[in-house]
Structures are given as C-alpha cells and as structure tokens.
Amino acid sequence: MKLLITGGAGFIGSNFVHYWLNNYPNDDIVNLDKLTYAGNLETLKDLENNPHHQFIHGDICDTELVNRVIEDVDIVVHFAAESHVDRSILDPTPFVKTNVEGTLVLLDAALKNGKKRFHHISTDEVFGALSLDQNEKFDDNTPYNPHSPYAASKAGSDHLVRAYYDTYQLPVTISNCTNNYGPHHFPEKFIPLTITNLMEGKKIPVYGDGLYVRDWLYVEDHCAAVDLILQKGKIGKTYLIGGMNEGISNIEVVKKILKLLNKSEDSIEYVKDRPGHDRRYAIDWSTIHEELGWSPKYSFDEALEKTVKWFIENEEWWKRVKSGAYLEYYNKQYSQ
Ligand code: NAD
Ligand code: TDX
User: Fold this and answer.
1) Residue boundaries of the structural domains of the chain
2) Per-residue buried b or exposed e for 66-78, using 16+ beta carbons within 10 Å of the residue's own CB
C-alpha cells in the first residue's frame, strides 16, 4: 500500500510516519511537507536511506504538485496545518490559506485522481469550550463552535471534507483529537515549552490563572487510533479521540513536570492570558472504543515521564529548534 502523508515533518505527522513504517515496513510513504517553522527534517533523519519513505518538499496549496504526487497513492492521511493557536491570534491569514485552501486542493486532487481514500486529521478545538463547573464532554452530537482563528480554520476544513463525501462521495473519514504530547513536540506548545524552559533554567509562562484544562493524549495513542480508522473506520464518519486525564489543569501539569525534573515552583511565572482562551476540553471517545476497539494505552503520568525522558535524551534536537527563527517569534509572543 502507498500512503500520501501531508505534514509528515511536523510533530504528529512525523510520529505517524515512524509508527507506520515500524508496523507496516513494506508499505510506501510519500511525505509532502512545506517545512514551515514547524517542519523539521532532522526528525526524519533515520529514514534517509529507507526506500519506503520519500520526502517531497512542497506546499499542499500547490495544485499541480498535489495532483502529481497523489496520482499513484492509495490513501491520503492529511496532517499538514498551521497548528499553534497563539500564532493564529497574531496572524490568521496563513491558517486560512493552509488549513482551508490547502485541504480543498487535496480533496479536489483526491477526487480527480480516482476518488482516493482520504483521512482528515482534526482537533477537538472545533467544538469550542466546556466550563469547569460541569462534567460534560464533547461527543458525537456536539455542534461546532470554534473560538480561535486556528479552530475556525480547522472547522472550515472539516466541513469541506464532509461536503466532499456528501456531494461527490469521496471516501473520507475525519478524526477530532484532543491535545497530543510526546517526542518531537515543537517547543512552542505548552508541555515541551515547560520541559525545555526548565532544562534551560528559564521560567514557565503560565497563561492567566493556570486553571485551564486539556484532555492530554500521548501521540502514539493518537497514531494507533488513526491506524484503526484507516483499517476499519466507516466511510463518511467522524471519530472523536481523547485521553484519560480529564480534569488536570495546566498548573497541575506544570507541577508534575517540576517534580519529574526536580525543580522548584519558583520557576512558575503567571503571564497575560491568551485572548478567547478556551477553559476546558474533554472528549467522549466511547464510539471509537465500541466500534473499533481503540482505547489509550498510556496513562498521563506514565507517558509524561516518558516524554520528559525523551527531551532529556534529545537535547540536541530541541536546542536546534529553539535557536534561530523560533527565538524571533518567542520574543514577540512573550514581550509583554
Ligand atoms: P505541527 O505544526 O507540528 O506540524 C505541521 C506540519 O505541517 C509541519 O511539518 C509543517 O511544515 C507542515 N505544513 C504546514 N503548512 C503546510 C503546507 N501549506 N503544505 C505542506 N506542509 C505544511 O502540527 P501538529 O501538532 O503535528 O499537528 C498535525 C495535525 O494534527 C494538524 O492538522 C493539527 O490541526 C492536528 N491536531 C493537533 C493536535 C496537537 O495537540 N498538536 C491535536 C489535535 C489535532
Ligand atoms: O506559554 C504557554 N502558556 C500556557 O499557559 C502556552 C504556549 C500555553 N499555555 C496554555 C494554553 C492552553 O490552555 O497551555 C494549554 C495548552 O496550550 P497549547 O500547547 O498552545 O495547546 P492548545 O492551545 O490547547 O492547542 C493544542 O491542542 C489542540 C494544539 O496546539 C492544537 O494544534 C490542537 O488542535
């Protein structure tokens, strides 16, 4: 089987490429990635001589290129996106371009090249926010209510994918997943930023009161869920994927990492809140559990420890990421 993976040099895409080639070493992967600030070829170094992995440096908005690379693949797994909420607040334009227009280019190419099987990777942020004082979760019936430009652009892409199924019968599936964490996570996101800042002796910028809640899922568990959807998922269906740790606030996450790294709470610095900050996310993943037999393998404490260990052992990787272009953005984001 031959897969087109978009965004396979980013955090989840690169984990998925490695997951797939470990589990299905005879399959072929074409990895199309624009290498924005978030794409990192160093993450794919170990695959340089693997004849089953072909990297193509290119933009999913490039219609001609996309039509060329999609021609002989069996499945498209679409990860490529602008993915950081704070960046979308500073400038929404690239989010609409890549997340909405880029998805449309891919869908159209998938349709015109023989109705390719298409899996779209999306997020729980399309559903908006839950409150702290209720136990409810996002489920299969939750309506879309995105708040950030990032979430709105992902919602737009989800609607387009569904429209290509309803209108043209393109064989699609969609997954909306909660916050991932794990190896090769770009250190602008909360967990890797916290770990690497502590390792550098810097403060941890905690937004607002720090009581925001995310439903964290180890990236390998996300990859396994997508694998099952590709193998057994019902065409036209959306699957919700989530973690096992509802209720853990950002400040509790920080405290767990402080403990793992043997650091004191003096490193915590409360900073200006994110505008439109969603209070809580939590996903009811009972459908994918009952229908496809998926459940997360890792507890939060176990996989957080694994993640911290990975960052300790791979200092060279994240130090190179944190230098150069990344610092320019970092200073702009935290200058107040
Ligand atoms: P990331 O920012 O780490 O990686 C995105 C990758 O896409 C990068 O390699 C980048 O170079 C590439 N890319 C960006 N624009 C492109 C374009 N126009 N053409 C080709 N490639 C382009 O993102 P991530 O965290 O790995 O997220 C991957 C996907 O998963 C995204 O669709 C995101 O919305 C979704 N998602 C992420 C999370 C999470 O917690 N990170 C949770 C749920 C869903
Ligand atoms: O410096 C920070 N301080 C802080 O308190 C940063 C970067 C974040 N935070 C908070 C904001 C959130 O409540 O931590 C929480 C997690 O923030 P992010 O890592 O930016 O993730 P989030 O905004 O929740 O979105 C992530 O999960 C869903 C991914 O970036 C998205 O791509 C995915 O769709």
Assistant:
1) 2-183+216-242+277-299+327-334
2) bbebbeebebbbb
Substitution candidate for ligand 2 out of 153, 189, 204, 279 with most atoms within 8 A of CB: 189
Ligand 2 center–CA 328 separation, angstroms: 19
Place of tokens 């002796």: 201
Q: Whose CA is nearest to atom 1 of ligand 2?
A: 205
pLDDT of residue 326: 46
Q: Count of CB atoms within 10 A of residue 271's CB? A: 15
CA 264 to ligand 1 centroid distance, Å: 33
Class of 2-183+216-242+277-299+327-334 per CATH?
alpha beta
The pTM of the full predicted model, rounded to 2 decimals, is: 0.97
150 catalytic? Reply is yes
Q: Which ligand is nearest to the CA of 148?
A: 2
pLDDT in tens, 55-88: 999 999 999 999 999 999 999 999 999 999 999 9
Catalytic residue (one of 125, 188, 246, 278): 125
Residue with structure tokens 């709105």? 152
